[in-house]
Amino acid sequence: MIHPPFPASFDSHPMSPAEQAFLDADAAYDETDGSYSAIMGTRPDTIAAALAGSPAGLAAWLVDKYRDWSDNHGDLESRFDRATLLTTITLYWTSGALGSSFRQYFDFDHNSPRPDITVPAAFTVSAEPSYANFPREIAERACTDIRHWSEPGRGGHFMPLEEPDLLAGELTQFFTSLRPY
């Protein structure tokens, strides 16, 4: 997993300086990208309906996310060729699935707190801006059995497309470690 989980609550014990620094930086980052969080957490169906009616709007929305959330240093096509971007846009357009991908943001505050994750877990932390300096302690509040933790310093939100060999190696290493022999 490239995005380690947050705990249901930070109340179990005081936060470390690293945890507090990350949460402060995350809040500051959210201020620059706050409209995304605001609309996803309150009105995801509205933006989904607007994007479902405009192929150009959908393309602009998705390309903006690929540009902002990937590890491309300002050059989108250094990570994604146009065919890949157009394929992704076409898949969302023809399937009408963009709206369902938004629902998780709204549902987050409307669900019961998630219990601790007790199965073996592995994390390859992406280098996207919102996960810079993500402290393992946050994930340890949510997961009781972290078997693999890696911070390669490259690859963003779309790591399977950006760094497929890196991610395949990470997955192989984790699942191989679970073998009983």
UniProtKB/TrEMBL annotation:
Alphabetical list of Gene3D superfamilies matching this protein: alpha/beta hydrolase
Which keywords does this Swiss-Prot/TrEMBL entry list?
Hydrolase
Hydrolase as a keyword of this entry, yes or no, is yes
One GO term of the biological process aspect = epoxide metabolic process
Please state which protein family the record places this protein in. Answer: Belongs to the peptidase S33 family.
Cross-referenced PANTHER family, in alphabetical order?
EPOXIDE HYDROLASE, EPOXIDE HYDROLASE 1-RELATED
Name of the protein in question: Epoxide hydrolase
Q: What organism does the record attribute this protein to?
A: Micromonospora sonchi
